[in-house]
Batch of 4 targets.
Target 1
Amino acid sequence: MIFRLLSRTRIEEYLNKDDRIILPVGSTEQHGPYGLTGTDHLIAEKLAEKIAELTYTIAGPTLPYGMSLHHTEFKGVLTLKPSTLFCVFEDVFWSLHKQGFKRIMIINGHGGNRNTFGALMSEYLYKYTDMKVKFRCWWDARGIRELIRKKFGDREGKHCSPSEISLTMYLFPELVQQTETKYKPMPDRTVFENPVHFKEKFPDGIVGADPNLATAEHGKELFEKISEAFISEMNYWGE
């Protein structure tokens, strides 16, 4: 079930028997020359909807914005500051708690959200001890890092990776038009000082990755294995 497609009555009926919800979060940012700007939140959303379907739970509304300040010298980037992201999701958590959702799985598609959500959960779960929250980046699902390493090795990189491009090629085959890009290995030091410095170091927006390795077949295998791992986690909570 998808939250935004349910009536109030349907949600009331659901909450009478279950208190689980899956929230997809990501970002809207550049993903190299041809990657979709919605890559991070679209992957999270599709996973959430698939998991909800197979666990008879609800997929909540997607948060399509994340902390992407370091990408802002590129076009196609809509970002929240960490403090704004913190406040937005604090209010979302409060609303969910008020409604009666007490077990929340967050499916995250953007690495830049990790620190903010970590701080948020440390503070918020201290206030609401009857809530349980799992924050999961899709690439941390059981067995996925090993699968990515097997398929792409060091060419997975850090941004615009073949794994995420593969996922979008599988999920949105009509939208991802693959073009050849020049692979540049990850530099010894990936530290950057500000958005201008980031673009100087990575002018094509790709960080140590080789998206040329991406295929829809890889994406299908990744999607199925990620879904399977998270379905198991959702079911572990029980009814």
Target 2
Amino acid sequence: MERTFPIQQSQLERSVNPAVSGASRNQKPETRNKPFIIPIFIPHAGCPHQCAFCNQSTITNIKRKIPSPEKLYLLIDTFLKYKGKQRNQVQIAFFGGNFLGLKTTDIKSLLHEAGKFVTAGSVDSLRFSTRPDTINNETLDILKSFPVSTIELGVQSMDDHVLSMSKRGHTSADTKKAVRLLKERNYEIGLQMMVGLPGDDETKAQLTGRRIADMSPAFVRIYPTVVLTGSLLAKWYQNGKYIPMPLEQCITLVKKLYLLFRENDIKVIRMGLQASEDLEKGSEILAGPYHSAFGHLVFSRIFLDMATAILESEVSVRNEVCIKVHPRSISKMRGLKNINIETLKRKYNIKSIKIIPDISLTKDSLIVNSYPRHF
């Protein structure tokens, strides 16, 4: 099971309806550069076994089923109606299962039907997520006739003990081999990692991050491990064999990993599980560092660190402090419920902090009392 949690098929109308989802045909410039992803979910399909942390039906609320050609066409066609003229690249993505673990006939059928949209010119390419141990010359040869451009691997960890404890069923060597084979065939590669798995700790997670960075993927996703109802991990949690990572510790760790990948020019396209109705209810998560705005919390911590570094370097902190940020970064600087502002006020006895939008700044920088900082 590859840890990708986008919108659910059962919530298609809410997902693709601009009036509900907040999408706009007058999209902002940075949105135009992101591919428009049409997600097709094949939860748990092709998985040889169930990992300790996995309960796919909880995450996607969809049972194991390969969509029929008719349903696939209808789903893709519906999403395309809401693409918007500003989006340059469109990709159909098969998420949730172990794509190359499917029967060869199912792989070819799905790619054939999705590929029709590429031939018609309404979609640019296809992508999917799969396990590292499904990548070999034989499975990759199946893809030759289809317009697949991007392949994501559920790496989860580069520590073999952690992989074994999590009952992942593959090794770090499988991941290295898979990445090498994909690079030989010029695929865009995405690697997914998890933090807080059984047997994992901050040192091992950062080592996984460095090993992933050494493989130079195009992008990564970072997921915190949460305890899902119905998973083996839930049993371990209930009998005391597994203790999930606290939210604050997880935010700090993921922040370090984000900065590591950024230093190596690797995009981090997701941090934290994507919010859904089931997860928001709270009944499906027994424990663990889940937050609907996890990525925002990480960015807010980075902005707090930058402001703190500048204020620490000043000989004396003024009663009034002005912080300039790009308009799109105001909420990151403030933090949820203004926690960053309150933290700085309390730590440095500041009476007033003004956040001033400055469109000339990049979204990853700020200026405190004329002193610039960026990450």
Target 3
Amino acid sequence: MPRPIQATIHGEALRHNLARMRAAAPDARVWAVVKANAYGHGIERVFEALRGADGFALLDLLEAERVRALGWRGPILLLEGVFEPRDLELCSRLGLWHAVHCDAQIDWLAAHKTQVPHRVFLKMNSGMNRLGFTPQRLRAAWSRLDALPQVDEISLMTHFSDADGPRGIAHQLHVFEETTRDLPGERSLANSAATLRHAADPQVRGDWIRPGIAVYGSAPDFPEHDIAHWQLQPTMTLASRVIGVQTLQPGDTVGYGSSFTADAPVRIGVVACGYADGYPRHCTTGTPVLVEGVRTRLVGRVSMDMIAVDLTPVPQAGLGSEVTLWGHAGNGAVLPIDEVAKSGGTLGYELMCALALRVPVAVD
């Protein structure tokens, strides 16, 4: 039989989360962000569940081709724009909308030969200092684009650096509004955190929201809020089984480095999952795990192919018992991916995107 580990993508949860984001900004259109192969879920696996969105936003031209190949005829937005002049040929052929964040991209558009003008999203650097024109240079960039026959409609966008935290978005929102006040065009500002926390303000939700991580069942401001607070559902389950059982005596240790020492007799289950499957190596003793839907803990160090879990809360567990690393257990219990990520010193984003190719994936 195959090794007993599997990821499952939950289509109904994806639909639910997309609807939740739309409800948070009811008069805005919704980009379903499917960059990074739909946050590790697989574009082809999530497409049917997310086709209720108004458009798909991503980074990679090959991913844009995959979305078109699935039959999508609506808007597709390249969030980082094109990377070289010849990319514009594919934008013309596939009808892609694309961000413009630097002078070189405007130069490339000016030299591009196309019969169908492009829809572009002019990006402003309102304080995050990654991509985009500074407020002092945005209007000149807009004027250059507006003069080009290769450009149709110009929309305006920015990205918040602190929508999930105490600093908030007011400082960036003010700069964006002041700079773009009398410029025409649709606006797109809000990521997942801004949509859930700040989209009561019509200036924040704008014309298009760009939810990413929340669509995939992770709270953008965890641990301040969890997915239950935001009424989100896990969209990926990683599950395996117990493949071995050991009974430890006081003083016995577990795994490489002997990082866990038993202080009393304890049964542990050895689980077919490790960092080569995408489980975070930096998770330590105490990381939550579900065995037969009962919450217990990881003990010792994560190995390449195995972890050990404490079976004390689940005395009936043994060889073959279901283990939920994150997501939904068979009895309906839920282990949010954010809790596991926190124990590993990272974010739910990374765990989703790090799911290894050797893990089989099903869609329910």
Target 4
Amino acid sequence: MRRVKLGVIGVGIQGEGHVICIKSLPNAELIAIADVDEKRARYIAERYGVPKVYRSHEELVRDAEIDAVTIATPDFLHKDPVICAAENGKHILVEKPMATTLEDAKAMASAVRKHNVKLMVNFENRFNPAFVSVKETLDRGEIGKPLYAYIRLSDTIYVPTEMIKWSHKTDVASFLMSHTADLARWYFSDEVHSVYAISKREILKSMGIDTPDMYVALIKFKRGGSAVLESSWILPRSMPSIVDFKLELICSKGTITVDTQKQGVQLFGESTWSYPSFIRLYSIHGRTVGFLREALGHFVDCIAQDREPLVTVEDGLADVKILDAIRESAAKGKPIEL
């Protein structure tokens, strides 16, 4: 298996995770990083031993030494790096959502197809052991066919007010529901027929952040299955975890549930308590582990072996179509057919 040479575009919180994971992969070599914040880029490069630093994605993708890029820019800034990378013959892993508008997603998909490069959207929960076990149970037919799913993925208000500085340029549908829409589509192995959704703008808008507080969407699939997706990012800061992620899947011969919040550990201090998170990205005796690493490792393996990733550009485009319909339904107050 050949060694894949990579560049990372955007080295904020998620991009730093990409750097950590790539540095741990035996068949990957991290050549360069790029970020508009040059100070941040140089800090990450020095901390993790990355030889090249660029101030723009355009400069990075012109580097002939690089085979593939991972893109971890903010939600609304995926289009230009993806198209530029495709035009320069680089294979691409882009963070979810593929784009925040259907128009951008279609332009990205067109560029990827035109230049015959691979694109994987990082729906990292397809590599999360808890959610993978659900898919494998379904595929084995142990609990029959899926009939109905309820999937809740919400964050505390810390996320849109402090953790990210660009929440007013995205929404909770793109930031969180992109994950759950993909899981629902993956589990039902079907395409969405129609969507009916509601949203609310109150808490964040009152704080000067003009973005919805929440969305709730009823999704109906073409073969009759249905799912309710619920996402907000105004949960109280006092919660012991910033993420609340739950699944209930009702099937023709049984039910399966997932709750990732506690992850088996509860930590109690003198005046605080928390649920430490370690299954996504963690270090065990100096070795990087977790499902983010598994997702990036899968992408690198696919480039090295010249095969298609499990998550494709078509999956990313289908996800954006669902999110676009959710927003349209909430705005118009009526069901939207895809």
